[in-house]
Write a structure and sequence with these properties.
CATH superfamily of the largest domain: Aspartate/ornithine carbamoyltransferase
Strand order of the largest sheet: 7-6-5-8-9
Largest sheet: 5 strands, parallel
Radius of gyration: 19 Å
Distance between the termini: 9 Å
Number of strands: 9
Number of domains: 2
Order of helices and strands: HEHEHEHEHEHEHEHEHHEHH
CATH architecture of the largest domain: 3-Layer(aba) Sandwich
C-alpha cells in the first residue's frame, strides 16, 4: 500500500477510480464519514499562497471530523535552518496527515520519506495531483466513464499543470494533448517520458504539439492555466506573454472543438490573457464545479490514505 500521495504518476487507475467514487459520494453527502478523523489533526503546510487548495483542505479535514492546523512557510523553524527530515518527524508526532503546497518537488518527496504519517502533495512547481483528481471527477460527471473517442486538450504554458494533465490522462487511458510553445515553455522531457511510459501500459494516446488549433480540433475538453505561475521571474513576463499569445482560449478556438465540449481552468484566471471572458464565463465553462471538487477529492484522498487503502502504481 502507498503511504503518501507525492506525485500524480504514483497513482494506479484503480486508485483513481476509488478516489473518484468516494469523492462523488462526498459531493452528495459531505458528512458521510464525519468521524473518520475524529479527535485527530491534519497539518497543512504552505509556502505558496492558496485559495482553493487551502479552503478545500481545511474544509475536507473538518468534514472528516478532524482539526486542520494551517502552517505558513515562516511559521516553522524550517525557515531558520531546521532540516526537512527533523520537521517531518516532529509533525508526525502531532498530526495524522500532512498536506504540503510548496515550490520544490524534492521537498515534498523528502517530507514523505521522513514522515510516519501520510503526506499529500497539494502542489509543487512540477506536479499537482489533487487538482487533476478534481478535474477528472468533473470530466466524469459531464461525460460519464466511457471516454472512448474523446480528446482532452491542454493549451498554454508547459508548467506543472501540463505535466499533471499528461500523466493523469495517461493513467486514465485517454487521448490527451498538450499544446505549448516549443523551447523553454514546453513541458519537461521527463514529464513527457513519464506519461508515455504509463500510456504504453494503459493504451492512452499522448500528443505534445505546438499548434493550438490542431490540438483543440474536435476536443471534448479544452484546459488552460495562467501564463505567469508563482515563482516565475518578473523579467520574463513580456517575452513569455508574447510567446503564449497564440494559445489564448478564445471563442474562435472553442468553435473548433466538439459540439459538447467543456472549458476547464484550475484557477485563478486572468480574463483577457490566457482565456477570453466570454469563454470562462460562458455556457461551456465548468470551472465552479471543478473548483468545488477540490474539496471532495482531497477529502477522498485523506480518507483512503489514512486508512491505508491506496495501492500505488508499482
Amino acid at each position: 500500500m502507498m503511504k503518501d500521495l507525492l506525485r500524480t504518476e504514483h497513482l494506479s487507475r484503480k486508485d483513481v477510480d476509488l478516489i473518484l467514487d468516494t469523492a462523488a459520494q462526498f459531493a452528495k453527502n459531505p458528512f458521510r464519514s464525519k468521524d473518520a478523523l475524529a479527535n485527530q489533526t491534519v497539518a497543512i503546510y504552505m509556502t505558496k499562497s492558496s485559495t482553493r487548495t487551502r479552503l478545500a483542505s481545511e474544509t475536507a479535514v473538518a468534514h472528516l471530523g478532524g482539526t486542520p492546523i494551517f502552517l505558513r512557510g515562516d511559521d516553522l523553524q524550517i525557515g531558520r535552518g531546521e532540516t526537512i527530515s527533523d520537521t517531518a518527524k516532529i509533525i508526525s508526532g502531532f498530526a495524522s496527515a500532512l498536506i504540503v503546497r510548496t515550490f520544490a518537488q524534492s521537498d515534498v518527496d523528502e517530507l514523505g520519506a521522513h514522515s510516519t504519517i501520510p503526506v499529500l502533495n497539494g502542489l509543487t512547481d512540477t506536479d499537482h495531483p489533487t487538482q487533476l483528481l478534481a478535474d477528472w471527477l468533473t470530466i466524469r460527471e459531464v461525460f460519464g466513464s466511457d471516454i472512448s473517442g474523446r480528446k482532452f486538450t491542454y493549451v498554454g504554458d508547459g508548467n506543472n499543470m501540463s505535466h499533471a494533465w499528461l500523466t493523469m490522462g495517461a493513467i486514465m487511458g485517454a487521448h490527451v494533448v498538450v499544446a505549448t510553445p516549443s523551447g523553454k515553455w514546453a513541458p519537461s522531457d521527463s514529464a513527457i517520458k513519464v506519461a508515455q511510459n504509463i500510456a504504453s501500459k494503459s493504451g492512452a494516446k499522448i500528443e505534445v504539439l505546438t499548434d493550438p488549433e490542431v490540438a483543440v480540433k474536435d476536443a471534448s475538453v479544452v484546459y488552460t492555466d495562467v501564463w505567469m505561475s508563482m515563482g516565475d521571474p518578473e523579467e520574463v513576463r513580456s517575452e513569455k506573454l508574447k510567446a503564449l499569445a497564440p494559445y489564448a482560449v478564445t471563442k474562435n478556438l472553442m468553435s473548433l472543438t466538439a459540439s459538447d465540449s467543456i472549458f476547464m481552468h484550475c484557477l485563478p484566471a486572468h480574463r483577457g490573457e490566457e482565456v477570453e471572458a466570454d469563454v470562462i464565463d460562458g455556457s461551456k465553462s465548468v470551472i465552479w464545479r471543478e473548483a468545488y471538487h477540490r474539496r471532495t477529492t482531497i477529502q477522498a484522498i485523506l480518507y483512503h490514505l489514512v486508512r491505508g487503502e491506496i495501492e500505488g502504481n508499482h
